[in-house]
Amino acid sequence: MEDNGAVTTLRLALAQVNCRVGDLGGNAAMVLETAHAAATAGADLLAFPELTITGYPPEDLVLRPGFRAASQAALEKLAADLAAAGLGELAVVVGYVDDDGLPRNAAAFVHRGAVLARYFKQHLPNYGVFDERRYFIPGDTFVAVRHKGVDIALTICEDVWQDGGPFAVAGAVGVDLVVNINGSPYERNKDDLRLPLLQGRAAEAGAAIAYVNTVGGQDELVFDGDSMVVARDGAVLLRAPQFVEDVYYLDLEVPERLPVHLAAPATVVERVTTEVAAVALTAPALPAVHADRMPDEAEVWGALVVGLRDYVTKNGFRSVVLGMSGGIDSAVVAALAADAIGGANVHGISLPSAYSSDHSRSDAELLAERIGAHYREVPIAPMVDAFVDSLGLTGLAEENVQARVRGTTLMALSNAEGHLVLATGNKSELAVGYSTIYGDAVGGFAPIKDVPKTLVWQLARWRNADAASRGELPPIPENSISKPPSAELRPGQLDTDSLPDYELLDAVLERYVDRDQGVAEIVAAGFDADTVARLARLVDGAEWKRRQYPPGPKISFKAFGKDRRLPITSAWREGLR
Amino acid sequence: MEDNGAVTTLRLALAQVNCRVGDLGGNAAMVLETAHAAATAGADLLAFPELTITGYPPEDLVLRPGFRAASQAALEKLAADLAAAGLGELAVVVGYVDDDGLPRNAAAFVHRGAVLARYFKQHLPNYGVFDERRYFIPGDTFVAVRHKGVDIALTICEDVWQDGGPFAVAGAVGVDLVVNINGSPYERNKDDLRLPLLQGRAAEAGAAIAYVNTVGGQDELVFDGDSMVVARDGAVLLRAPQFVEDVYYLDLEVPERLPVHLAAPATVVERVTTEVAAVALTAPALPAVHADRMPDEAEVWGALVVGLRDYVTKNGFRSVVLGMSGGIDSAVVAALAADAIGGANVHGISLPSAYSSDHSRSDAELLAERIGAHYREVPIAPMVDAFVDSLGLTGLAEENVQARVRGTTLMALSNAEGHLVLATGNKSELAVGYSTIYGDAVGGFAPIKDVPKTLVWQLARWRNADAASRGELPPIPENSISKPPSAELRPGQLDTDSLPDYELLDAVLERYVDRDQGVAEIVAAGFDADTVARLARLVDGAEWKRRQYPPGPKISFKAFGKDRRLPITSAWREGLR
């Protein structure tokens, strides 16, 4: 430090918490409670995720002046409440919507009952699932607070993903620590990107980075935490486990700062101090957590469980109902639901038709038994026959009526018994429109809508093996995994009658949907031209169905939902041009 | 003009055309055909709407490199094709996606087979239904082309709605005409805003403005045209009728330009010339169109008809099917459909239950007869009884099964006969969740989803009176307009059993939904606190249903759809705080 030359230690607490969108009072109460625990643990600085007070993302609630004013007021009250609770000496970084004239995505540095500094997010993501330019004005001021002799800069989420901005400024003006508060949604393999990114920014800033991210589910998004602290030299000082809500502590040794040789930045720099002097750490040193990275399937399974659990509980449901066909999709959804809210809260309904195989029922019943779910059978023939007789249906119309009778039955049980209906469709089906709207597509939530069919199988095998490795009975019947997939809407029907095999299908879809490659590019990569062109047409033609599909957790780079906004009415046809 | 001092006349052609999203070849062919007509009419300059080549809005198609490259290639080919067709002397302003390194919302000035200048939109709207920051990089260069001695600046849509930018620059550097090409969606009363806005910009630019807008429907959006030319002094020189696809001509007399006294702007200014000298107009003068403004109901009816017609036809349907209950909502939707695609292509299905009144059927049949629609009855009792008997349903579950049997029946007829299903719900119902998901909410398109119930009645009365004024039979049975609204899901049920009367309901909803007012603000305006709080809770609680509702044409300031993006999972409760 410039003013004492000595090595200082700051006890840092990262609050990897689950905020609730719109619950300003509840979130503030959670901050107070967490601050109490952190103060008891001797922390000097406690950092919360992005938009702690409002939850993330609050979407168009931010457009309401009353909501913005409530966020601002909740922050001011929280500062006073912290001091009143005897927690004023703990420095707290908390996210909120600032509305002092212009709406801002803001971080407050709270100390001794006052908001000592406010930082406004400079890089507002407006791609993928993000619409932050819709809501906020970007900030242009670099903010650093000196606390216990440590210079601490504030940044928010996207600031770390974009070049230019506060990390470069930190390097130019000199600070010891950059706090980066996040609402960074889970994506497969994203945790592999975060660490090298933070290491690069730490070098750029010439300072340690404390990255704190939220956990939990919010509509289509799942937040995985993965909070960490990276030293100036890139060393990982702390890394929290994914998906686990907890406070993680680190005794950060702040080394003597390197002299700053860079030109002063053009940006406005605001520096304040808490006027708390550096003191040597007297408490016994706290060991920091270093969580192992999860295997890919465990991570995806965790994301799906958290997304489902929070959708159910945050929306006030206690139980779910789903159609259990004996197939792999409904088996995986049922197992996820049992892991999320307990098998006793899962109601599996077998809805056999004339075309259902015997194993459909026995596999479904076995699954229910293994996961501890309720199980019953409702044969659909009486309802299907009533439609077929009244309307004289054949072919596709008759097939679809079977699916819609099932959907109506599940909704009736939901209305009568209060369960949330889960839709069991996977991403591959949803992509090519291989589902019946208002039939198997009914539901309040669709847990595997972003999971390609091949990954559904992979997850099922992993879940069973994971159970076996713990000496538990594998939940998913082997037969559900191994049998050839079929919608069972006509005799002997198999998915492969209408679709290529799923390995090929998923490989093409990953390019066309997730990576926005054109048909020509996919064919150039070695895929059959007719197959690719046909699949592209199927995907384009199913947009109207997807628009009415329930939400489900995003786990891929590009999920169907607010991540992918294509016109329904479109004459664009991908070709070999 | 600086170089000849004389008053010049430019024959201007505004192409108020209906572009098709994604149909790059078709849109380019339409440009060629229109250019032929304009050249034959002796035009000097022909301007098309925003993103002519790709259609507007292309949404996430712009994220595909192949789509952007195809747009760029289609423009280059169009320039060559125009010259090859002997139309090279006509100057053409056409919108396209430029992809020379960065994706741009661009306007090209095409002359003699070459793209003489490219202008990139500077103000990218990112509010309401717009996401242009998601797709495009803003331009920073002012572009003016001298053609026949007239200095013509290029601008695009939002550039005219925001302060700062090309109109101010035009005033500083001096031009004669600013061409503004638009994809400006219809909203009630928006045409009242456009003229004063353009008059202000004309004064700022010291130049006439030629505003050309597209017409037609695209998913949730309807474009009303309303193209116009405003003189430097604010005089309206031409105003096209709304919703009519045509080319509108004006012989624009270009007065001697005022001396420019302003400081040179900081922006980059690009000036090019076609090297075509000013010549006196020799053709006989063309009278310009001055269309009368439409009455409010006629304008809304026109928007709904165009939105429905284009959704049906652009998606390849030739007929529609809907449930006709005898009530006002389905009557208005059926009348709109008959106006949009002809009564012979409308299939009205009466779906009576045990609780349906006799007049339900007779009113529906009378309507079908008056609009020339097909009509049939499908009693739902056999299907409903099968569900009730199998599942033992009562109360809400039984009510909803009736609605879902109707939805499944309509979808079965759609599957069997190829009609598009129309959902008949209005905005008031959709707001408070007074509809059955997968029941009366089924459909590919929802023509009146942005029309509040009170406006539904108003439109019905207007449509009947308009028919009468032309000596035609009013299409909508008086009984459908005058009877108290009922869902007829249980004996004697009336909407007012669960909801306040619609005058009050719509007044509150207009504030809460369209204007984002909080409960406190609405109560302060004189509404009953309990009623407002209850309605706000109903609106918030129905978000999950709206998310699965079909698209329908936006006519209000804020429609349910991409205009309003609220979380489903939200603990925010509006209160009197």
Provide an overview of this structure:
Chain A is α/β, with parallel strands linked by helices. Chain A has helices at 24-40, 65-84, 132-135, 166-173, 190-205, 296-314, 328-341, 358-371, 381-391, 395-417, 427-432, 453-469, 478-482, 502-514, 519-524, 529-541, 543-547; strands at 8-16, 45-47, 91-98, 104-111, 114-120, 141-147, 150-156, 177-182, 208-213, 215-218, 221-224, 228-230, 236-239, 246-254, 268-273, 320-323, 346-350, 374-377, 420-421. The model of chain A has no long low-confidence stretch (mean pLDDT 94). Chains A and B meet through helix 2, helix 6, helix 9, helix 10 and helix 15 of A and helix 2, helix 5, helix 8, helix 9 and helix 14 of B.
